[in-house]
């Protein structure tokens, strides 16, 4: 009896904020006004081992996490793996989560680090390939895993991903978040503990490399 009454605020918020989970996780008023009180209630219960609260958190934020991580991946399989990894990290990290910080922002920080680690693994994999000339590269072609319905937009985004794959992991992460997902440089700096000046310099260098890659592609 007591447990059922305690769960009601968490369960009530799920229906009230069902549409919020589908909004774009960037520096917008929608993201900033995420349901922090309801999330905090669920997160505190999940931290104590409440499986129903964990499921509510996953359902509530799955769309936002998947939309962010789609920017990092080339295939649906990789997207599914990263989304699952993000929520596993969420569960493991709940003991260190503080109720004073918005849960949605904390979770998207985990998702961003998951995507960054994915870029790093790809970089190491390419570095240790036996024949790094590209002729024997078994990296799959990008799949149309963008939830958007515009085929032209998906094609353009996947072409950009192919170009980004030639940058360093940090450069890929920075340009992915800034240009593909709309994060401000100040937000990215805060996310990774960089100074804003250093972040601007990283962005300038990364964009310069991208321009060179596009120029080489045009004239190749």
Describe the structure.
With 220 residues, the protein is mostly helical. The N and C termini lie far apart (71 Å). Helices cover 69% and strands 0% of the residues. The chain has two domains: 1-129, RNA polymerase sigma factor, region 2, helix turn helix motif (Rna Polymerase Sigma Factor, Chain: A, Orthogonal Bundle); 148-220, Arc Repressor Mutant, subunit A, CATH 1.10.10. The protein is built from ten helices and no strands.
Spans of at least 5 consecutive residues with low confidence: 1-8, 12-36, 130-137, 139-145
CATH fold title of the largest domain: Rna Polymerase Sigma Factor, Chain: A
Along the chain, the helix and strand elements come as: HHHHHHHHHH
Q: Give the tally of β-strands.
A: 0
Whole-Å distance between the termini? Answer: 71 Å
Mean pLDDT score: 78
| Number of helices, counting only DSSP H or I runs of 4 residues or more | 10
CATH architecture of the largest domain: Orthogonal Bundle
Structural class by SSE content: mainly alpha
Rg estimate, integer Å = 19 Å
Biggest pleated-sheet summary: none
CATH superfamily of the largest domain: RNA polymerase sigma factor, region 2, helix turn helix motif
Please indicate the count of domains. Answer: 2
Shape: globular
